[in-house]
Design a protein that fits this description.
Distance between the termini: 49 Å
Mean pLDDT: 96
Strand content: 15-25%
Largest sheet: 8 strands, mixed
Radius of gyration: 22 Å
CATH superfamily of the largest domain: FAD/NAD(P)-binding domain
Bound molecules: flavin-adenine dinucleotide
Number of helices: 12
Shape: globular
Low-confidence stretches: none
CATH topology of the largest domain: FAD/NAD(P)-binding domain
Length: about 475
């Protein structure tokens, strides 16, 4: 019997698992996919928002501001990248200035560093801003991360410190007994005293496995993006937002932590919780919208597109509470934007405001520190040379676009919460994330996965169970 069972290994479940691993308790983390951080956490804008935007009085506002404060130290502890590169919200017409001022005053009221700057000052800092820009709200505390790297590192860290991760375990039923839950998945059955529902767009369905109450519904809101090649950087240094609308923060242009540029997202409510295809109307809309705030956009440098689904709740705020009709069942639901930015604060809130009132959290005396991923591209010649002397696999180049060696890939396969699919390898050390999008390296990654996991290459998956890459041999 576990003390805590977390459903969903996105950024919310990952952060809660990691924070619980600091205390003397047993934790199971259940995830339906073949890797952690595979849903909303893997397809978003990756912005650690300052907290200027959410509506006053909401949990979103409170936890976003706190999350932004916590991120830098979190990323240092996890040994993943974080850059506080700042953001501009730009007004492109005089009639947008009242709203810019509203956001400025809201930021100041939350002690968020902010200033309104003139069009000239904004252009001096971001030369590719559109000539229509009339003023900008500068938000220097805004940051960027790789969202899945933060979540994967948090799960690695949690597993190094006792959390048990169960991938490929889709929760299909939950039974409430007198003092525990029986959680059944597609693979097994688990007993736990507390259940934490961090299952993204499925959080309403998961809650309704154990309650008939229609406390909330989750509607997927699709957002699509273009990714531009690294060669375009520095196109913008900060994240550039338009004035927000009722639908959200609008189509932004941002540099990523790995120095690509992203353009998007749109915002479209859909019914299908798996509706992650890109659509031409959305991509056309993004191409049109980005030119309202920027010029000279190198659209010929698009290397891929992607889509994410926001888990939008019917209450229009995060729902983070123990269900009033199911004792010890904690919903962490409707975590749409700014859920990434808020994640460390969401976890802090769950532990301090909910769990600690029902369970004595006793700190462990010691912790195993997470070892960072090996990235030879960032090493100097002597460091690379020393590594290659120890293991020649670090001289074997697998990805030419991102300069990734076989040694780096082997290392991330054999860790706790290690990579088991081609996409999982890509998300940890990036083969396939470069200009050729895996054209050169993908067969090599398949071969390494097969060898290291002792499987046939025919059984290696791109991502989900129905994504086999190879169907048979063409030659003996
Ligand atoms: C287009 C878009 C842009 C965004 N931009 C930003 C941004 O710039 N900044 C920001 O702060 N936030 C942003 N967000 C929001 C942010 O991505 C989410 O708030 C965050 O990723 C939610 O994390 P989560 O862990 O709650 O959900 P998810 O990442 O969706 O994780 C839920 C997990 O539960 C698992 N699961 C579901 N059902 C089951 C089941 N039955 N059994 C087992 N496991 C299950 C899923 O497979 C998944 O891994 C954006 C979101 C989108 C879609």
């Amino acid at each position: 019997m576990y003390d805590f069972l977390i459903i969903g290994a996105g950024i919310s479940g990952a952060m809660i698992a990691r924070d619980l691993s600091k205390f003397k308790c047993s934790v199971a983390l259940l995830e339906k996919d073949n890797d952690v951080a595979n849903e909303a956490t893997s397809a978003n804008s990756a912005i650690i928002h300052s907290g200027h935007d959410p509506k006053e009085g909401t949990l979103k506002a409170k936890l976003n501001v706190r999350g932004n404060e916590l991120y830098e130290d979190l990323c240092k502890e996890l040994k993943v990248d974080f850059e506080r590169n700042g953001a501009f919200v730009v007004a492109v017409a005089e009639d947008e200035l009242p709203q810019l001022n509203f956001l400025y005053n809201q930021a100041l009221s939350r002690n968020i560093p902010a200033s309104i700057i003139t069009a000239e000052e904004a252009h001096a800092k971001e030369p590719n801003l559109s000539d229509s820009v009339v003023a900008a709200l500068e938000l220097p505390s805004t940051g960027i991360v790789s969202p899945w790297e933060v979540a994967i590192a948090a799960v690695e860290d949690a597993c190094n410190n006792g959390v048990e991760l169960f991938l490929g375990n889709k929760v299909v039923s939950i039974e409430k007994k007198a003092d525990h839950f029986v959680v059944t998945t597609t693979k097994d059955e688990y007993l736990a005293k507390f259940v934490i529902n961090a299952s993204g767009v499925y959080a309403d369905d998961i809650y309704n496995l154990v309650s008939d109450k229609k406390l909330f519904t989750i509607t997927p809101r699709r957002g699509e993006y273009y990714v531009l090649d690294k060669q375009t950087t520095p196109f913008v240094d900060r994240t550039i937002f338009p004035i927000p609308s009722a639908k959200g923060k609008g189509v932004l242009v941002a540099k990523t932590i790995h120095h690509n540029v992203i353009l998007g997202p749109n915002s479209e409510e859909i019914e299908d919780k798996e509706g992650k295809d890109n659509t031409q109307p959305a991509l056309d809309y993004i191409r049109k919208e980005v030119f309202k705030t920027l010029k000279n956009i190198p659209l010929h440098q698009v290397i891929r597109t992607y889509t994410g689904l926001r888990p939008t709740g019917s209450t229009h705020d995060f729902i983070i509470e123990e269900a009033d009709d199911v004792a010890n069942f904690i919903n962490v639901a409707a975590i749409e934007s700014p859920g990434l930015a808020s994640a460390p604060a969401i976890s802090e809130y769950v532990l301090n405001e909910i769990i600690s009132k029902k369970f004595e959290l006793v700190r462990k005396e010691s912790r195993v520190e997470r070892r960072p991923w090996i990235i030879i591209n960032r090493m100097n010649y002597d460091e690379k040379h020393a590594l290659v002397q120890k293991d020649p696999a670090f001289a074997q180049m697998i990805c030419r676009c991102e300069h990734i060696s076989e040694g780096e890939i082997v290392d991330i396969i054999h860790r706790k919460a290690g990579a088991m699919t081609v996409k999982a390898v890509k998300r940890r050390v990036r083969p396939g994330a470069g200009r050729c999008q895996g054209g050169f390296c993908e067969p090599k990654v398949v071969a390494i996965l097969a060898r290291e996991l002792n499987k046939s290459p025919l059984d290696i998956l791109l991502d989900s169970d129905d994504s086999k890459l190879l169907v048979g041999k063409t030659k003996e």
